[in-house]
């Protein structure tokens, strides 16, 4: 059996020529969305190498970002091992929430302080 030629397609049907004969199959909307897996052994080595290099760079970037995050977030590391990514994210969230609460308390204190200051003689000046 010969390899199929490029399809001649319409909205409803796909036509493939196999051994000089057209094979008509009905197409569905899902056919356009479906991913067709091609095994690694069937892909050119360059394509696989580029994809692997991209993935290595992506993983290195993620690991670098986590290393930077571990430096700025106070972490509870009682065992002396590197803190996991999940634990790093959980503790970063807790740290950010604590900072937000601190800012809210500061904002409330400042507004309370200045509201008492402004109630006095501040606006009673004669110009």
Automatic annotation (TrEMBL):
<dbReference type="GO" id="GO:0003677">
    <property type="term" value="F:DNA binding"/>
</dbReference>
<dbReference type="InterPro" id="IPR036638">
    <property type="entry name" value="HLH_DNA-bd_sf"/>
</dbReference>
<dbReference type="InterPro" id="IPR011598">
    <property type="entry name" value="bHLH_dom"/>
</dbReference>
<dbReference type="InterPro" id="IPR050283">
    <property type="entry name" value="E-box_TF_Regulators"/>
</dbReference>
<dbReference type="Pfam" id="PF00010">
    <property type="entry name" value="HLH"/>
</dbReference>
<protein>
    <recommendedName>
        <fullName>BHLH domain-containing protein</fullName>
    </recommendedName>
</protein>
<feature type="region of interest" description="Disordered">
    <location>
        <begin position="29"/>
        <end position="54"/>
    </location>
</feature>
<dbReference type="GO" id="GO:0006357">
    <property type="term" value="P:regulation of transcription by RNA polymerase II"/>
</dbReference>
<feature type="domain" description="BHLH">
    <location>
        <begin position="46"/>
        <end position="99"/>
    </location>
</feature>
<dbReference type="GO" id="GO:0046983">
    <property type="term" value="F:protein dimerization activity"/>
</dbReference>
<keyword id="KW-0238">DNA-binding</keyword>
């Amino acid at each position: 059996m010969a390899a199929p030629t490029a399809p001649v397609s319409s909205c409803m049907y796909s036509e493939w020529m196999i051994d000089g004969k057209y094979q008509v199959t009905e197409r569905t909307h899902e056919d356009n969305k479906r991913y067709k897996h091609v095994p690694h052994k069937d892909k050119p080595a360059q394509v696989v190498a580029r994809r692997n290099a991209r993935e290595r760079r992506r993983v290195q970037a993620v690991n670098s970002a986590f290393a930077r995050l571990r430096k700025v977030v106070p972490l509870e590391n009682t065992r002396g091992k590197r803190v996991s990514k999940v634990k790093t994210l959980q503790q970063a969230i807790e740290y950010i929430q604590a900072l937000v609460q601190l800012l809210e308390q500061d904002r409330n204190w400042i507004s309370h302080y200045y509201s008492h200051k402004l109630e006095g003689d501040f606006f009673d000046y004669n110009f």
